[in-house]
Amino acid sequence: MNDSLVTIAAIIGMALATWLTRVGGLFLMKGVTVKGRLKAALDALPPAVLMAVIAPTVLATGTAETLAAAITAMAALLRLPMIAVVAIGVAAVVALRAVL
Amino acid sequence: MHTSRRAADFRRGVLDILPVLAAAAPIGLLWGTLAAARGLSPFEAWLTSATVFAGAAQFVAVDMWRDPLPLLLIVVTTLIVNVRHLLMGASLQRHLGDFSGPGRLLAMLMMTDESWAFAERKVLAEPLRPAYYFGVAGPMWLVWTAASLAGAVAGRTLGDPAVYGFDFAFSAMFIAILAGFWKGPRTAAVLATSAVSAALAKLAVPGAWYIIIGGVAGVIVAALLDNDVDADDADQRGESAAP
């Protein structure tokens, strides 16, 4: 009983911590006029964060992942449908991991 | 008319997220089995996925799960892994003009890397409408919670997703989304800065700080580069500035 209470407390604590980060974004920029360099910075935020999320996988995991990422990027720049890009990337990483 | 547009928006969102669901389902299953192996009941595993709803944080937490439970450490680590949501939300909230008050709150609570990325890609082409956003975020929540529950009930290891390349599916999807943000050499400078800073930070700093470090470094470069062409760009910016 005590065990499961601690477990539930941990889950609630994790949920509250996550909700704080999710809802906090609504108020972070409240009342700030977005223009000029600040707008350029905010516009660059999505690609910069996306890139940062995958950077360790792409650059610091192994040769197979780095090469597969390059192949995926080429497929993406050819404007193929997203599902095709993902399929090409996954197939490339499986093949390269088997070979390298 | 209005209803049919809403249905079409919702359908569009579901179609966009489908390939992500195919990758998220096995990863959710895997998380469920790991949680069960660490002693979480199926209900507790489901509750975690339903409320925390953040894959990276959940894997990190389950990895730290032991007896006695390091409650404070788990909560603080969750906070650090998820700090990126603050940056993502600050950007996304600019595009929630069509959302009601509760809609904005719900949109934020259901925000994942994936739904956020699709929303940011959408606003490059047209305004973000609630039906589209929840068409993306809703199925993601359903599949993630269902897969976690199924994994916890099955309670046995399904194997390493790396064998099937599923672990790379999210990276591949983010690369596909990144291509939509391409605007020339300045984008290249932002992406290169972010990638190198994040990769170095990942090697040097424990935890998930690399996301913040890479993101902030990229954003700083964007702001600095914008300063160089401030005068030239003034007109363009004027007409595209959000009200």
Describe the 3D structure.
- The complex is a heterodimer of chains A (100) and B (243).
- Chain A folds into two domains: 1-32; 35-100, no CATH class.
- Chain A is 85% helix and 0% strand.
- Chain A has four helices and no strands.
- Chain B has 243 residues and is mostly helical.
- Chain B folds into two domains: 2-181, no CATH class; 183-243, no CATH class.
- Chain B has helices at residues 2-37, 42-51, 55-64, 71-82, 84-92, 101-109, 113-122, 130-154, 166-179, 185-204, 209-228, 230-240.
- In chain B, α1 packs antiparallel against α9 and α10 (185-204) runs antiparallel to α11 (209-228).
- Chain B starts with a helix and ends with a helix.
- Mean pLDDT of chain B is 86; it is low at 230-243.
- Chains A and B meet through α1, α2, α3 and α4 of A and α1, α2, α4, α5 and α6 of B.
What does the secondary structure layout of this molecule look like, with pairings?
The complex is a heterodimer of chains A (100) and B (243).
Chain A: H1 2-28, H2 36-60, H3 63-77, H4 82-99
Helix pairs in contact in A: 2-3, 3-4
Chain B: H1 2-37, H2 42-51, H3 55-64, H4 71-82, H5 84-92, H6 101-109, H7 113-122, H8 130-154, H9 166-179, H10 185-204, H11 209-228, H12 230-240
